[in-house]
Amino acid sequence: MTFETVYADAPSPDGPALFPTMSTMRAMRRLKPEPVPDETLDQLIQAAVWGPSGGNMQAYEYVVVTDRAVMAELAPLWKRCVDAYLATTGKHAPKGMPKAAYGRMVAAIEYQRDHFADTPALIIPCYKFPEPQFDEEGLAVYAEALGPAGLEHMAGTQTRFQALAEGSCVYPGVQNILLAARALGLAANVTIWHLMLEQEWKKALGIPEDTHTFAAIPVGWPEGNFGPVRRRPVADVVHRDRW
Asked: For this UniProt entry, which segments traverse the membrane (predicted)?
């Protein structure tokens, strides 16, 4: 497996405008401390709201942090999460990623960790999955449609199914936030490291106990420049008709 540049040359100006946006949407972790206007942040949330939502339930909420005091309170939590990640999963470069490139990424992660209190804005997508509504007739059809093996499988994967169902309602909006940020010239990156200390994050932000958080997205004006992303070639990831 190797990482390749999506476009060898600049995308054609005749092509869809979204494609050049996606092809240069790198994770940008070095942010200027200058604030991002509230109306610009509202544009990001509007983009998120436009995103698809599994079952069209639209039960998402977004916590947008810009207050310096709140950010300073979150900074030690961010540091603990980043340090835990870099000491375990993040200790080694992913397969196929050059060590030098991974070293640059880690340096950016450490920079963001050390300057987190200066982050202009932080977006926390949240979701509380509505209680499912079942009736006896519907459950009978469900059981017949899945069969004994399917029912047994669902019994063993209910936790994963619930997590994926919630994620399908949240992550399309998260992607829209990242796309909108890139289109507006803002730097952003998405992580789930905060989940290692989710209860402490929720307490600091007043998020209800029965509401789950799905990401932490720092947003600001970039210190560096946007450039082409590096990804595996399409031919390496496509299985035509079957695996």
From this structure: none
Lowest mean pLDDT, pick from 14-28, 178-192, 196-210: 14-28
Measured CA to CA, the distance from residue 105 to residue 233 in angstroms comes to 21
Q: What is the pLDDT of residues 135-149, one digit of tens each?
A: 889 999 999 999 999
**Closest-CA residue to 122 (of 82, 173, 63):** 63
125 has pLDDT over 90: yes
The 3-class SS string of the chain reads CCCEECCCCCCCCCCCCHHHHHHCCCCCCCECCCCCCHHHHHHHHHHHHHCCCHHHCCCEEEEEECCHHHHHHHHHHHHHHHHHHHCCHHHCCCCCCCHHHHHHHHHHHHHHHHCHHHCCEEEEEEECCCCCCCCHHHHHHHHHHHHHHHHHHHHHCHHHHHHHHHHHHHHHHHHHHHHHHHHCCCEECCECHHHHHHHHHHHHHCCCCCCEECCEEEEECECCCCCCCEECCHHHCCCCCCC
